[in-house]
Amino acid sequence: MTAPALVILAHGSRDPRSAATVHSLVKCLRETRDDLRIEASFLDHCPPTPYQVIGKLAAEGVEEVVVLPLLLSSAYHAKIDVPAVVDEARSRFPNLRIIASDVLGYDDTLLDVLDRRMRAELKDGRVRELDALVLACAGSSDSHANASVTRLARLWGQRHKLPVTAAFVCAASPSPAEAVLKWRLEGRRHVAVGSLFLAPGVLPDRAESTSRRAGAVAVSAPLGVSAEVARLVLLRYGVAGLDLLTLEPAPRPVIARPELVRTA
Question: How many whole angstroms separate alpha carbon 180 and alpha carbon 80?
Fold first, then answer.
């Protein structure tokens, strides 16, 4: 059996750095699993769409596809947009078996990446002392998604024996700047902000600029491409691939057979 194709479905951004990061991740994944067909697609703002990618795969004879939402949060996009994409793709390409994997999620292994990004920032900024941390993410109106960030922030603080606050750029509070200011008002002058975003873009930039204005001594770069993120992608893909086995088989195209012609 041929392994299902993996279609990465990222949110998309008008910032070209975001798409560049996604394509770099796909390149990393291809190098790790050269036996898999792996393609990038985007929900919005930049090409290609998931339908363009899946249509191309269907035309090449691919029979099974795993759509992997390149999202940290299991919130609106994961619950509404991704299922809509899969339903539409199944409608457009009825002969394909298509399934969506789980989102990446706020997995503990991401803290290893976060620490590397933070150490690089501290070294560049010659920061030698920290007395509080802020973990900044996009934020959501989904309280369960935000609670997952709070949990991860707590684990990050325990790693470094530092107090930590989870902060949200949108839809929830406190904002990264508010979290930094709160620590500074308590007398903590060396506050660093960890950027819990997969790629550069508008929201990470906002988190960084507002945090620095609030007095943060360091703001790490987004997670970007890493072995940990790649392994997490392949783990989600593997589980979804097994789930494909439980789906009803896609209907086979009916091939008309010419009637037999009797000859005298």
Answer: 33
